[in-house]
Amino acid sequence: YVRPSARTSLIIKLVGTDNDRLARPGDRGLWCYTDRLSYLPGEQVRFHVSTSASRYSIEIVRVGARREVVWTRSGIRGALHPTPPEAFARGCGWPDGFAFRIPRQWRSGYYAVTLRAEGKKGEALEWDHFFVVRAPRGRRAKILMILSTNTYAAYNAWGGKYPPYDLDDVV
After folding, report:
1. What is the pTM of this model?
2. How far apart are CA 171 and CA 166, in angstroms?
3. 24-58 burial code (b ≥16 CB/10 A, e <16)
4. I want to staple 97 with a disulfide (CB 3.0 to 4.6 A). Which of 18, 49, 74, 89 is the partner?
5. Tens digits of pLDDT across the chain (171 residues)
6. Could you tell me which of 32, 147, 36, 57 has the C-alpha nearest to residue 102?
7. What is the DSSP track for 127-150?
């Protein structure tokens, strides 16, 4: 038996409880998901956002040989939406927070999304997400990127139901 590090131990104690903002969004914070994880240039991205902040901002960065900020917007109206108990299996069902169309000139690649807001007590709220822009049909890129999205979806603490972090069934 190898005792987990203090940080891991702390995470295991928190996840699966109603107090863990990463596992079960409560009444404060900032969270986001998109309707899909990959898009073609010209397609629309729908962001589903829940936040306790009245306004938030989004920054989209193309991650490649260098970090390139390609799109930003601030002052987006925020709204807090309930998270269903079965969100880990069926999704949150949050309404669109906003949508935008990917410009046709965007290159294929990995795009990191960062949402930022200020909480009611002045604390910084931040959430990271990503999506991929695929090469247009008939065009081939020199490099193939493979993302383990099924692994990301299966092995995460969001929703509190990944077995190593799910203390509800053991306690």
Report:
1. 0.76
2. 9
3. bbeeebbbbbbeeeebebeeebebbbbbbbeebeb
4. 49
5. 444 444 333 333 333 333 344 444 567 889 999 999 999 999 999 999 999 999 999 999 999 889 999 999 999 999 999 888 777 777 789 999 899 999 999 999 999 999 999 988 899 999 999 999 998 888 777 777 787 777 766 666 565 555 555 444 444
6. 36
7. EEEEEEEPPPTT---SS-----HH
What separation in angstroms does the CA of 64 have from each of 41, 48, 111, 130, 143?
17, 26, 9, 13, 11
- Residue 91 backbone zone (phi > 0: left; psi -120 to 50: alpha; other: beta): left
- Rounded CA Rg of the chain: 18
